Amino acid sequence: MAEYTFFTNPMSRGQIARWALHEAGADYDQVLVPWADKPAELLAANPMGKVPTLVHHAVSGDRTISEAAAICAYLADAHPGAELAPRETERADYYRWMFFAAGPVEQAIVAKSMGWETPKEREMMVGFGSFDRVLATLEEHLGAGDWVCGERFTMADVYVGSQVDWGLAFGTMPSLPAFEAYAERLRERDGYKAAKAIDNKLIEESQK
Predict the structure, then answer these.
(1) What is the pTM of this model?
(2) Pairing of the two strands 28-32 and 4-8
(3) Which domains, ranges and CATH numbers included, belong to the chain?
């Protein structure tokens, strides 16, 4: 048995978790999950039936991790040799921007995609304020350095980078210079290439 069981669908946020697994150098077995028929094994681990879900077969017993940002953070901590967790001086940026991407960025993109309009006078009632404000904030930070935490790639870049990479590919984020340059740096990583090759092949095979 591999160290991890990875429940995923290639057309999902499972792509984020697979990239994280490859960056961490983790040994995993994948379980492909169809949308209409969730396997009992997945539902036992995660009653929501969501992918990605990761089960870590640790020496002390199985541990279940869901939610893509949590999976990224967990893998960084579980594989210190990969040096993806934040150093002391990087922790503020690491946690700030990972959770910013998981919260305001995700909310703003979903709201815009669904056509949900927040009245101007109620922007302070929602976690993201406005789509434009969220994107401007992220653009300013990513334009200030190569990576989320400055000069060094960390697991925060897997999560934040996935949001940017996906957003550019599907048009849910504008093609801004800071986003495009950041995405290009991400796409050169071996972990990104290996994970994407697997998911792209699975998508291609499912469409035959």
Answers:
(1) 0.96
(2) parallel
(3) 4-83 (3.40.30.10), 88-191 (1.20.1050.10)
